Amino acid sequence: MGTWPVQDAKAKFSELLMVAETSGPQTITRRGVEKAVIVPIEQWRAINRGSKPTLLEILQSGPQFDLQIPPRGRWKMRKPVGF
Q1: Domain parsing of the chain, residue ranges
Q2: What is each CA distance from 83 to 7, 49, 69, 77, 79, in whole angstroms?
Q3: Is domain 2-52 in CATH 3.40.1620.10, yes or no?
Q4: pTM value > 0.70
Q5: 1 touches 22 (CB < 8 A)
């Protein structure tokens, strides 16, 4: 894994992407402190395949029911209160 100072990463972004594709993840540092990692998209997708499901996915994977909802009755609506 290579390390790039942020100034070099900005100046040579195309080269950084090419190196990440061919050599694997590249670390970007600011003032010597690791701040980010550029990874090839295939590796990113492989990492995210094992991610936790969203709430929507959990709810949609549950049992499905046919609910018989009765029609609304003919209830009289109250008149609006005037001020």
Answers
A1: 2-52
A2: 66, 59, 37, 18, 13
A3: yes
A4: no
A5: no
